[in-house]
Amino acid sequence: MSTQIKKPKSLGIWGNTDKPRFWELLAPIMDWALDKKLTTFITTRIHGKLPKNFNYDYHVIKSADDFYKTDFLLTLGGDGTILSVTRAVGHRKTPILGVHLGELGFLAEVTVDDMFNRLDMVTAGNYSLHKRMILKGEIINGNGPQIFYALNDFVIDRGKSHRIITMRLSANDHYVADYKADGLIIATPTGSTAYSLSAGGPIMIPQMNAMVVSPVSPHTLSLRPIVFPSDQTLEIKFLDDATDEIAFAVDGQVNEYLNPKSKIFIQKAPFEICMITFKDSNYFQTLSQKMGWGNRGGGN
User: Fold this and answer.
1) CATH assignment, 10-127+278-299
2) How do the domains of the chain map onto residue ranges?
């Protein structure tokens, strides 16, 4: 799904400051923005680590609402960097352009070598915005509800326990199945090529609106990944009387531990994330190049 585009007048910079490559690129990006007469915003984390000889004008993103002041966000890092920025942006709809600094970047489709060419295209208005579905997870854990949002997936697993866990899945109050497994993955189309794929789940086109539930090491071969439309509310509850805490992960980055009496409700979030892409971008080519999808074994 595409949406209206505009020529930007400002940009925000969000990066993995632990990567030396980020610091090598920061000054050239600031020079580029100065040449394009763009107002530049950087995160407080970047601001706090700037070298003393950094002589550029910029504003600091001090709160999430400062994203409203940026026409787009340039993220430099890996897929984890994009996952963290999407949680920060939330419902604010600031478009995100991802540049991957490592070997494998699936969400961040722009390479360093092509970065300034793509940035020039953005300033010329020669780009598209694709909306990505977000999942909303609500945990009822005895202390009031906790709300989380995920671009990739929510993962429920046995945590530190060596026992499998039994989970009952319902969709819109209809019983689906009881899963005896190491865990469950509930993924968006964007996250369908992440952990869910390694658990046997299907690949879904990122612009779809659907959820896939994939069991992790199920005790029976009859339980397979299942895709639900985005108008469903999934409920997961635990049938074991075990006292072990159950782990709950958000995009592989946020972890909570739940007691077995917890309930989890997962549904499509009321907002989406806008990703910047280009007419010559090809999702299937990305699958082939970065994941070997469709390639015959042995490279033939």
Assistant:
1) 3.40.50.10330
2) 10-127+278-299, 134-271
What global pTM score does this model have? 0.89
Amino acid identity of residue 237, one-letter, is K
Characterize the bridge pairing of strands 246-250 and 153-157.
antiparallel
Angle between helices 20-35 and 115-123 (to 10 degrees): 30
**Nearest CA among 156, 152, 151 for reference residue 141:** 156
CB atoms within 10 A of CB 216: 21
What distance in Å separates the CA atoms of residue 132 and residue 113, rounded to the nearest whole number?
26
Q: What is the mean pLDDT of each run of 10 residues along the chain (300 residues)?
A: 72 96 97 98 97 95 96 94 93 95 77 95 94 96 87 91 89 96 96 93 93 94 92 93 79 87 96 93 72 59
- Residue 1 has what pLDDT? 43
CA 273 – CA 57 distance, rounded (Å)? 29
Cα angle, residue 183 at apex, residues 180 and 187 outer, rounded to 5°: 125
Residue among 66, 71, 79, 231 flagged as catalytic: 79
How remote is the C-alpha of 169 from its chain's centroid?
Answer: 24
Task: Report the distance separating Cα 35 and Cα 54, nearest Å.
Answer: 17
Cβ–Cβ under 8 Å, residues 196 and 187: yes
pLDDT at position 173 is: 96
- The yes-or-no answer on residue 31 being catalytic is no
The CATH code that applies to domain 134-271 is: 2.60.200.30
Q: Which residue from 185, 263, 261 is spatially nearest to 223, judged by alpha carbons?
A: 185
